[in-house]
Automatic annotation (TrEMBL):
UniProt xrefs under PANTHER family: DUF503 DOMAIN-CONTAINING PROTEIN, HYPOTHETICAL CYTOSOLIC PROTEIN
InterPro entries named in the record: DUF503 (IPR007546), TT1725-like_sf (IPR036746)
Gene3D superfamilies in the cross-refs: TT1725-like
Superkingdom: Bacteria
The protein's name: DUF503 domain-containing protein
Length: 93
């Protein structure tokens, strides 16, 4: 069994309040969960309006599948939301 953890550092340009940030992140998390059936949570920069760090987790019996899925999540988030992807890290345990 392999557990994949993806950490994504995001810049949320245009957000002017924490409420707007929460709405943007809720959309990202909900759509990503529905599309990939994975776990997503905000794990850092809770009090900054224009920054967020999301953690994504998935489990599979195939290491290659875990890596491919998390790479697809990165592409999906980067291409479907008004964010700038600053950095990401994939770790497979």
């Amino acid at each position: 069994m392999f557990v994949g953890v993806l950490q994504i550092d995001l810049l949320l340009r245009g957000n002017t309040s924490l409420k707007q940030k929460r709405q943007t992140l809720k959309s990202i998390k909900d759509r990503t969960r529905r599309k990939f059936n994975i776990s997503v949570a905000e794990v850092d920069h809770h009090d900054l309006w224009q920054r967020a760090v999301l953690a994504v987790c998935c489990v599979s019996n195939d290491k290659i599948h875990v890596n491919q899925m998390l790479s697809e999540v990165v592409k999906f988030i980067e291409s479907n939301f008004p964010i700038e992807l600053l950095d990401y890290q994939i770790e497979i345990l």
